[in-house]
Amino acid sequence: MPGTRKLGRATDSRTAMLRAMVTFLLENGRIETTVTRAKDVRAMAEKMITIAKKDTLHTRRLVMAFITKEDVANKLFTEIAPQYQDRNGGYTRITKIGPRRGDAAPMAIIELMETAAKPVAEAAPAAKAEEKPAEKAEAKADDKAEKKADEKADK
C-alpha cells in the first residue's frame, strides 16, 4: 500500500496503536496527539463511521474486528453514525496546536465534527450577545445627543 506511514513501529504495534486511538476518539470525541498520527487516525475513524452508517450484521462484525471495546462499537452505531447520516465524509477535524514540549514534535487535536444543529444553537446566543452592546451604544449616543441639545437650549 503506497503512502503507508510506518510511525516508527512494527506493523503489529502500529495497528494496535491505531485501533486504540480510534477507539479512544470514538469514545471521548477528541484526542491530542502528533499531526502524523492524527492523519492516520482520521483515515481509520472516518472509515469506521462510514461503515457504521449502514447498520447490518456484516458492518457490525467489521467494526468489532477493529474497535477494541464493545460498548464503543455500540455507541458508534447508536449515537455517532446517525448524526452523520446525511454527510458524506469529513466527520473529523484536525487542529494543529504547536510543538510538544521536550522534543518539539508537531502536535494536533483530532476531534469529531459536531452536527449542524449544535453550531446553530451556539451561534444564536452569540448573536443576542452582540445585539445588547449595540443597543447600549445607541442608548449612549442618544444620551449624548440629548445633553448637547440641552446645553444649546440653556445658552
From TrEMBL:
Query: HAMAP family, per this entry?
Result: Ribosomal_bL17 (MF_01368)
Which GO annotations describe the biological process of this protein? translation
Quaternary structure, per UniProt, is:
Part of the 50S ribosomal subunit. Contacts protein L32.
- Tell me what organism the protein belongs to: Caproicibacterium lactatifermentans
Alphabetically, the GO molecular function entries are:
structural constituent of ribosome
Q: Which family does it belong to?
A: Belongs to the bacterial ribosomal protein bL17 family.
Assigned keywords, A-Z: Ribonucleoprotein, Ribosomal protein
Question: What does the entry list under GO cellular component?
Answer: cytosolic large ribosomal subunit
Pfam families annotated for this entry? Ribosomal_L17 (PF01196)
Name of the protein this chain belongs to = Large ribosomal subunit protein bL17
Spell out the SUPFAM superfamilies in the cross-references. Answer: Prokaryotic ribosomal protein L17
Query: What InterPro entries does this protein's entry cite?
Result: Ribosomal_bL17, Ribosomal_bL17_CS, Ribosomal_bL17_sf
Output compositional bias ranges, type Basic and acidic residues. 128-155
Looking at the record, which segments are called Disordered? 120-155
Query: Among its keywords, does the record have Ribonucleoprotein?
Result: yes
Among NCBIfam families, the record links this protein to:
L17
Report which superkingdom the organism of origin falls in.
Bacteria
